[in-house]
Design brief:
By secondary structure, the protein is mostly beta strands. It has no helices and eleven strands. The strands form three sheets. A five-stranded antiparallel beta sheet has the order 2-5-10-7-8, with no helix packed on it. A four-stranded antiparallel beta sheet has the order 1-11-6-9, with no helix packed on it. The structure holds alpha-D-glucopyranuronic acid.
Length: 127
């Protein structure tokens, strides 16, 4: 069906802040993960049918260090160590798709930082 945007600033944030100081975000801002392993953003998404979906993550990473995230769905790891490399500068946003398996109806997708740098800045996910 038609892709739906789920803004990071509307998600459940554990150790992170909603900010708007780097241009180019959609919605009202983005999430700056705290620079700590375990910081996370969790979205509740709704899909019509069970299956494998591409979750398109819009992010920025103004450093040169990869900021990997583990993706869990409804509490179980679905994609681990997904890389979010440098985008050149914090206002440079790009996307990458992450394949996850979802159930029909509501699902909780949680993106957890795995290094002490925390995650990239995340604007939104689309699926
Ligand atoms: C800078 C930048 C933030 C970013 C942070 C980080 O402070 O302004 O947007 O989240 O670096 O390294 O995580």
């Amino acid at each position: 069906g038609t892709p739906v945007d789920y803004q990071a600033e509307d998600a459940t944030i554990d150790r992170g802040a909603v900010e708007s100081n780097h241009a180019g975000f959609t919605g009202t801002g983005f999430v700056n993960y705290d620079n700590v392993a375990g910081s996370s953003v969790e979205w509740t998404v709704d899909v019509p049918a069970a299956g494998t979906y591409d979750v398109v993550v819009r992010y920025a990473n103004g450093t040169t260090a990869n900021r990997p995230l583990d993706f869990s769905v409804n509490g179980s790891i679905s994609a681990s160590g997904v890389g979010f490399g440098g985008t050149g500068a914090w206002p440079n946003w790009t996307t990458r798709a992450v394949k996850v398996t979802l159930a029909a109806g509501a699902n909780k997708i949680k993106a957890v930082a795995t290094t002490t740098n925390g995650g990239p800045n995340i604007d939104k996910i689309t699926l």
